[in-house]
Structure formats: structure tokens, C-alpha cells
Amino acid sequence: MPTPPKPKRRKAVMISLIVVAALVVALVGGELFLRQRATSCMESQFQSQLGSDVNVSLSWKPVLWQMVGKDVPYVKIDSSGSSFGPAQGMAVHARANDIKITDSPDSSGTIGSSSADVTWSTAGILATVQSQSLGNLVSSVTSDPTAGTLKFAVGPAGLADLTVRPSVQNGEVVVETVGAEILGLGLPTALVDGIVQTLTDSLQQYPLGMAPTSLTVTDNSVDLNLEGGQYVMPPQDPNVQSGCSLL
């Protein structure tokens, strides 16, 4: 018959298991704490740069390794509110890759490449336009995916329609006036120019040095794709809480 383990040996094994379990709990707890802190700091930093509330998700790589090497494989950035810059009802989902963290007066780090998908709903476009001067004259916005246009109904009963076509040209979003159908009333020039300018300004909010690559008008939104290359991040905003850095 096998000899049962001696009490001292059994006690040593139990102590070893307890120590290992305690170390695992400490490592997991430390990782969760550091990940939460790093996420909060990065959200504060990106919010100061983008001018909108965002949610940040870190890569799979343990934060402790990232802190030691100052090297972040990627982060995902999602707009957490119902607006992005001047645009209401706009959702932005971005990813920044190969982030190198630095701590200098000139920069907080560099980004190797980035991409983003932007969705601006027609309801959000209407709300954005209506918030501008004379925008209360616009009663609805409808999209035409086939023609790639947006139609703005003007007046209490849609007495006039303004149709525009947004597109990407030479790395920028351009909004062209396609035409206006007027039933007895003329469209104020200030209103037409205001709508076009509001759309143009709202679709020029390119985060992290990205530029538009394509634009699609869907049944209920304008979808914009952005891509970016090497980007130097500005120095940390002094308004970000003291002692808080990207990592």
C-alpha cells in the first residue's frame, strides 16, 4: 500500500496552493485596477482632443506589460453620447493601432495607423440643421440611396425642397447643391448656404489626423469611412486630472 503523505508535507502543499491562489488573485486584481485606471485616463485624453465624450477599450495585452514597454497594440474609441463635435445623432467607432507612449512637452505619443466608421442619422442631421440660424424652417430630411442625395423639406407643408449630394473628393467631404423645387416661395440664400455649411462642417470632424475615404447615403443615414497614418498626439491636456497619463 502507498504511504500516505506526512502531515508536514501535506501542510506545505496546502500553504503553496494558498500562496499561488493569493498571487493569482493579486495579479488579476492589479490588472483590473490598472486597466480601469488606464482606460479612464485615455478617455479623458481623447475627449480633450476630440471634443466629445468617448468610451475606450484597450487591447488584450496586459496593461502592466504595456506600461513597462510604453507600447499599446491598439485601442478602440467609441462616441458615447448622441453627438460628435457640432453634429447631433452622429456615432463614431474608431480604432488606433501601434501606439507609442511618450512623455514630453511636445507630444504624448504617436499612433501608427487608424480607422473609423461614422454614421450620421437623418434624424440627427435634421436636429443639427434645426439648431442653426433659420434651421427651424426645415421640417424634415429624407435620403435617397440611389441618387446619393439628401432632401430637406422647407416650410410648414414642405412648400420647397432643397436637395444636396455629399461626396468625398480629394480626401475631403464636399456637399453640392443639386437643386431646389419651389412651390410659390423662394428659398432664402442664407438658409441654403447655412444647410450646406452645417453639413460640410459636421462632416469635417476627422479625429486623430484621419481623412475620409468613402461616403455612402443609406435609407436613414450618411455613412463615412476614415483612415489615417502616422499621427503625433498632442501633449497631455493640463485639465486632465493630475497624475493621469495615457498609461
From the structure above, extract its key features:
4 helices, 13 strands, 2 domains, 7-stranded antiparallel β-sheet, single chain, alpha+beta, 247 residues, 4-stranded antiparallel β-sheet, 38% strand
Provide a short characterization of the protein structure.
The chain has helices at 7-50, 63-69, 122-130, 189-202, and strands at 54-58, 71-79, 83-84, 87-88, 90-101, 109-121, 138-144, 149-154, 160-169, 172-182, 211-217, 221-228, 231-233. The protein is elongated, with a radius of gyration of 26 Å. With 247 residues, it is an alpha+beta fold.
Any overview of this molecule?
- This protein has 247 residues and is of the alpha+beta class.
- It has two domains: 27-117 and 229-233, no CATH class; 122-225, no CATH class.
- It is 30% helix and 38% strand.
- The protein contains four helices and 13 strands.
- The chain has helices at 7-50, 63-69, 122-130, 189-202; strands at residues 54-58, 71-79, 83-84, 87-88, 90-101, 109-121, 138-144, 149-154, 160-169, 172-182, 211-217, 221-228, 231-233.
- The strands form three sheets. Strands 1, 2, 5, 6, 11, 12 and 13 form a seven-stranded antiparallel beta sheet that branches. A four-stranded antiparallel beta sheet has the order 7-8-9-10, covered by helices on one side.
- The protein is elongated and about 95 Å long.
